[in-house]
Amino acid sequence: VHQSKMDFFCKLGYGKQDICKVLETLGQEALEDDVLKELIRMGSKPQALENQAQPSQLKLVARGSCSTTPGLKWLGEDQSDSSDALRPIVIDGSNVAMSHGNKEVFSCWGIQLAVDWFRERGHTYIKVFVPLWRKEPPRQDSPIADQHILEELEKQSILVYTPSRKVKGKRVVCYDDRYIVKVAYETDGVIVSNDHYRDLQNENPEWKWFIEQRLLMYSFVSNRFMPPDDPLGRHGPTLSNFLSKKPVLPEKKWQPCPYGKKCTYGNKCKFYHPERQHQAQLSVADELRAKIKFPLGLCKEEERCQCSP
């Protein structure tokens, strides 16, 4: 009898401990209705009702705080991957420094201005190539300004020195332009320089195309680094598309008709007419060709459908 009652109330969802307490107080021969009333009086509830009564606890997260929810994590991943959409930047340090120094002084401040400009845009891969002999103390024939900037950029793993050495008192310098073009080509990046690298274009046909398409020229306007908004000409990509791996194509815009409402070309006009939005844009000949493609029966049915209210 005890086991049968235990099984009955367990199927209803009550706990075994509550059932045993009630049977001890009322006795093993108590009726099922009395046991049920005692369970209700004790406040015991079936497990299914308890699960419904306890709603899922939603954690309130303050704005700007970290969260482990998949939606916020996905948004965070998109924000972190925004820098991956930008191309690597390879800067010709000698060219930039001499341009900022008006071709008289090797101005390291010009290199810092260029690096800061690309940092503000979100580029994470920035490399500057400078010959190793620029670490030596400046001389009268090759003055250097703000040489301490080179040390700071080297500590940040941005500046790279191209090798050089002295043989019998003569300096042997490796060709730093080849380093610049090679690294930019391998990383599919952008070369920042006003040099055209014509000798390297003749040396390698693949580099020729790459230099023509990925060379970003610049200007210094009162200590301000300014690349052009149209690096490849007026009809080429914008600067933002030029520096991104996935360029965003502009929406096609119709050029408005210069004659406006006085235009006499009708449907043959290739320009945009805002007053003709609801009119057919096909010419008369094109409309006749389109009607020939459909049988006469279909055309008549379409006319009936249009005429019917």
Choose one word for the global shape: flat
Number of strands: 11
Q: Please outline the major beta sheet.
A: 5 strands, parallel
CATH topology of the largest domain: Rossmann fold
Low-confidence stretches: 52-81
Which strand-content bin applies to the residues? 5-15%
| Category from helices, strands and their pairing | alpha/beta
Tally of separate domains: 3
* Count of separate DSSP helical elements: 14
Calculate the mean pLDDT score and round it: 77
Widest β-sheet, arrangement of strands: 5-3-1-8-9
What distance lies between the first and last C-alpha atoms, to the nearest angstrom? Answer: 80 Å
Give the fraction of residues assigned to helices.
40-55%
Per CATH, the architecture of the largest domain is 3-Layer(aba) Sandwich
Rg is 39 Å
N-to-C SSE string, H for helix and E for strand: HHHHHEHEHEEHEEEHEHHEEEHHH
* The level-1 CATH class of the largest domain: Alpha Beta
Protein name: ZC12D ribonuclease
Domain C3H1-type: 251-276
GO molecular function: hydrolase activity; mRNA binding; RNA endonuclease activity; zinc ion binding
InterPro entries: Rege-1_UBA-like, RNase_Zc3h12_NYN, ZC3H12/N4BP1_RNase_Reg, Znf_CCCH
